[in-house]
Amino acid sequence: MSGHGTPVPMTSRACGPLTGVAEVPGDKSISHRSLILGALSVGETRITGLLEGDDVLDTARAMRAFGATVTDHGGGAWSVQGVGVGGFAEPSGVIDCGNSGTGVRLIMGAMATTGITATFTGDASLCGRPMGRVTDPLALFGCRAHGRQGGRLPMTLVGAADPVPVRYVVPVPSAQVKSAVLLAGLNAPGETVVIEREATRDHTERMLAGFGAEIDVEQTDEGRVITLQGRPELQAQVIAVPRDPSSAAFPVCAALIVPGSDVLVPGIGLNPTRAGLFTTLREMGADLTYENEREEGGEPVADLRARFSPDLHGVVVPPARAASMIDEYPVLSVVAAFAQGKTEMRGVKELRVKESDRIDAMAKGLRAAGVTVDEGEDWWVVTGLGHGQVPGGNTAESRLDHRIAMAFMVMGMATQQPVSVDDGSPITTSFPIFGPLMASLGALIDGSKA
Ligand SMILES: O=C(O)C1=C[C@@H](OP(=O)(O)O)[C@@H](O)[C@H](O)C1
Ligand SMILES: C=C(OP(=O)(O)O)C(=O)O
Question: Does the pTM of the predicted model rise above 0.90?
Fold first, then answer.
């Protein structure tokens, strides 16, 4: 649970070259799903490389509350003794998902078609985020939700005792919504069909197949049509969680803007539904190479090598790429500030309903650092000043948003004056070793607890 403690102000200042190997933690999306699918399967799922960030630890606690046995064996090794599809027990207390949209929305889906009732809450950020996007499709299965105005947490879900399968076209590009419907479909008899017009990260589909569910994905004129047969017996798995590309983004982007840098980020998942940032950076002229390309656990993986790139230029990032880099726009906007010319980011309305309104949070901080940002409801444009030309000297609000805090810490590594954030404590939600890892590469960050 994040954001409940004392704020941790942090300051980042210009540093010498960043060099070395950045072993970033496990993938957050895959970590949540490993715990949830482990809890819904029969037998013991063994997981290595689990991200031990607050978001995932909250999901582990929640799975215990629903009756699974979740054990931490140390060093990222965990096991989950599952209760089987439909086997969730009614929790005796409120489920606190902390700062995690993925956690709360996927768990809501997983319990929505069991005849139990559960009450969910979270921190101030999560309680401000829309849950109707999940509870609307869950209502089609027969699940009832009672929350605050605007479909906000705290919220009680009364699961459907007699669920029916659904066919649902996801109205927003969201892997969380898609996944919630699929997880609910697990305990509905018959065929649940989810259609997404724009492809979003496909970890749920891949993992459901891995756990033995009958799931079929077809690309049609309507979009990606995912068909799941309900009431499978999921079989426990052995899972090695790959390192998180969304966390790799921070040392990679830092290396591109700090003179003389040369950083290797090994073992990063390059699933095309997640790799949009790296494509964009290369289009901008980044010296970013994929080394030792291979496949691990059914996912394409490579070691990323990022070197200082003095001649970055602005690009237009197309809306079609948004889902594959949705969490990376904050740090991309920082790189854009050090490029020549405008970087246009379009089709990104979803950024306004993340842990914070990420367009607003970044635009305000970038402007305070001397960078011009124009914005509309679903777009923003950063006018780059070029390498060495970004003034900095500002204190940005992190707004309980880990990605905003880390993006501004990266910016301060290459600005003329240091850059601060009022509260870096949210960083532990997704990247608990951010501070020491960046320091080991040569970054100068004060105040870091993470
Ligand atoms: O399914 C997931 O694991 C996630 C989906 C994305 O959210 P949306 O589904 O809201 O786009 C992303 O922003 C989040 O960090 C993780
Ligand atoms: C949006 C994010 O997470 P979530 O929706 O799980 O809170 C994120 O990690 O950037």
Answer: yes
